[in-house]
TrEMBL record:
<keyword id="KW-0479">Metal-binding</keyword>
<keyword id="KW-0411">Iron-sulfur</keyword>
<keyword id="KW-0408">Iron</keyword>
<dbReference type="InterPro" id="IPR055275">
    <property type="entry name" value="Ferredox_Rdtase"/>
</dbReference>
<keyword id="KW-0560">Oxidoreductase</keyword>
<keyword id="KW-0274">FAD</keyword>
<dbReference type="InterPro" id="IPR023753">
    <property type="entry name" value="FAD/NAD-binding_dom"/>
</dbReference>
<keyword id="KW-0285">Flavoprotein</keyword>
<dbReference type="InterPro" id="IPR036188">
    <property type="entry name" value="FAD/NAD-bd_sf"/>
</dbReference>
<feature type="domain" description="4Fe-4S ferredoxin-type">
    <location>
        <begin position="37"/>
        <end position="66"/>
    </location>
</feature>
<dbReference type="Pfam" id="PF00037">
    <property type="entry name" value="Fer4"/>
</dbReference>
<dbReference type="InterPro" id="IPR017900">
    <property type="entry name" value="4Fe4S_Fe_S_CS"/>
</dbReference>
<protein>
    <recommendedName>
        <fullName>ferredoxin--NADP(+) reductase</fullName>
        <ecNumber>1.18.1.2</ecNumber>
    </recommendedName>
</protein>
<keyword id="KW-0521">NADP</keyword>
<dbReference type="InterPro" id="IPR017896">
    <property type="entry name" value="4Fe4S_Fe-S-bd"/>
</dbReference>
<dbReference type="Pfam" id="PF07992">
    <property type="entry name" value="Pyr_redox_2"/>
</dbReference>
């Protein structure tokens, strides 16, 4: 009886190097890596040693015989990945991080940000024994979205923060929290002080939706909701008011939309003991929300959420899940293969319209492109193309995060990311900016889960080490005394 990888998997590939029979795929270097929801274990080759389960930082790997009823589907999902691949396939050998490099003199790197990409960058740099790292973060609490993004009920995924915390207290690491680079200290000053600077600043604004009424009171971004329920220091405790709200419409259908739908329909008692903020828990206890509509612009075959997130939503007994929108949506869903994200909706009910009176309900509305938010003093309804109107007391915009330009840093407006080639920062004209690097969402744009930042960080660190090897660091200039005291 093999092991299987389940919902918590964040694709960080930590399990690959410990598997004695190379039966976990896709690996970095294989075409699918970074494109699948999870990694998968080949049940035909797994020898049941359990090494991968011990290595996984988020407890995503379980013996198939111990999967709970809700997890049982993951045995099939893992097996399905190998369906058309020969048993004991001649996979490419797995690629492991390069061994520690010992021939560097001491060098100092500033990492701006303390989220997942910053942490994986530090992890890779600390393999070099002569490295020294200083983290800067504008917040007083380290962790980025691993702390203020990942939903509080994703307890397994949030465990990754424990792993990252061990880096923050590493003897060769210094933490400078509550310091915004570009505001409290200039980019040039940081650059002067360190041999290299890695920007891991994420993407901290919303992709805009330019439709009439989107700025009405009662229309907020899912980013604000997420900050509110995770206790982000920059989001007011009263930023979300659920009193008197019955139907919430979420515009967008990515995983953040599903997080929002799940939290808004959760039994608050199930959230007790998680990292949810106390003000959000109190508001959810008073909440009158009965229905959350998740509006997707396209059909179920183009769903933007991942299968595992949808699965987590559907498997809750306390909430009804329904599908509305295009008349053919349910039959399209029924025909989807098990690997398709929306196949998790197979067997859910057809939406019948009225606000539910017993169980709370989540409605997936496919083929619904929003054209206007209506209301006089506040949101009352949303119009979708094709003359459909959905009465709504609260509208959440969840169409994605986006980076914001910081004066002094070259920014690619189209991608919403800092300009770079393979992690080396580049100028407007494509010239490399010496000593400055980019990683994570700031490098790729706001896309990908926590684990995707690991391979990404290794690429940036490889570039950084290569440059240091070619051009060993010179003497660094100290900060002026008054500034040094502040940072
Ligand atoms: C709501 C939400 C839920 C998610 N849930 C999951 C999940 O369950 N599983 C999963 O695998 N992935 C999840 N993700 C994706 C995951 O969070 C990202 O892949 C990851 O956080 C990106 O890491 P990052 O380090 O690039 O950015 P971030 O995590 O955003 O970190 C950026 C850091 O930089 C700091 N910073 C920014 N500007 C400055 C400055 N000028 N000076 C100093 N500090 C600065 C910020 O304060 C922040 O700490 C989620 C994303 C969101 C938005
Ligand atoms: S249980 Fe052992 S053999 Fe099976 S996938 Fe995990 S590490 Fe590989
Ligand atoms: S989270 Fe990482 S270690 Fe755990 S199963 Fe996924 S890829 Fe493997």
């Amino acid at each position: 009886m093999a092991f299987a990888i389940t919902q918590n998997c964040c694709n960080d590939a930590s399990c690959l190097s410990v598997c004695p029979v190379n039966c976990i795929h896709p690996t970095p270097g294989e075409a699918d890596f970074g494109k699948t929801d999870l990694l998968y274990i080949d049940p035909r080759s797994c020898i049941d040693c359990g090494a991968c389960a011990d290595a996984c930082p988020v407890d995503a790997i379980t013996r198939v015989s111990r999967l709970t009823d809700d997890q049982a589907i993951y045995a099939d999902i893992n097996a399905e990945y190998y369906q058309n691949k020969p048993a004991l396939a001649q996979w490419d050998p797995p690629k492991f991080p390069p061994a520690a490099v010992n021939d560097f003199a001491r060098f100092d790197v500033a990492i701006v940000g303390t989220g997942p990409s910053a942490s994986y960058t530090a992890q890779a740099l600390l393999r070099v024994p002569t490295s020294r790292i200083t983290f800067y973060d504008k917040l007083d609490v380290a962790g980025g979205l691993a702390r203020f993004g990942v939903a509080p009920d994703h307890i397994g995924t949030r465990q990754i923060s424990e792993h990252f915390r061990s880096l923050f207290v590493h003897p060769r690491v210094t933490m400078k929290l509550g310091v915004e680079v570009g505001v409290d200290i200039t980019h040039e000053e940081v650059h002067r002080r360190y041999d290299a600077v890695v920007y891991a600043v994420g993407a901290d604004s919303d992709r805009p939706l330019d439709i009439p009424g989107i700025d009405l009171p009662g229309s907020v971004s899912a980013r604000t909701l997420v900050g509110w329920y995770t206790g982000h220091p920059g989001v007011r405790t009263d930023a979300i008011d659920l009193d008197g709200i019955e139907r919430v419409t979420i515009i967008g259908n990515g995983n953040v939309a599903l997080d929002a739908a799940r939290i808004l329909t959760a039994d608050p008692e199930d959230l007790v003991g998680t990292d949810i903020s106390s003000h959000a828990l109190a508001a959810l206890r008073r909440s009158t929300v009965k229905e959350v509509v998740v509006a997707a612009r396209r059909g179920p075959e183009f769903a933007a959420f991942t299968r595992s997130e949808c699965q987590a939503l559907v498997s809750r007994r306390s909430v009804e899940v329904a599908v509305s929108g295009q008349p053919e949506a349910l039959s399209v869903i029924d025909d989807l293969p098990i690997s398709a994200p929306a196949s998790a909706l197979q067997g859910v009910v057809n939406y019948e319209g009225a606000i539910p009176t017993t169980k709370r309900r989540i409605v997936f509305a496919f083929g619904r492109a929003p054209v206007r938010v209506n209301g006089t003093d506040r949101v009352e309804s949303v119009d979708f193309a094709g003359a459909t109107t959905v009465a709504s007391d609260l509208v959440l915009l969840a169409i994605g995060y986006r980076g914001t330009p910081s004066p002094g840093l070259p920014f690619d407006v189209e991608r919403g990311a800092i300009r770079n080639v393979g992690g080396r920062m580049t100028d407007e004209d494509g010239t490399t900016v010496n000593g400055r690097y980019v990683v994570g969402w700031a490098k790729r744009g706001a896309t990908g889960g926590i684990g995707d930042n690991k391979v990404d960080a290794e690429e940036t660190v490889d570039a950084l080490l290569q440059d240091l090897a070619n051009n060993p660091p010179g003497p660094k200039r100290r900060l002026p005394r008054v500034l040094a005291r502040k940072v």
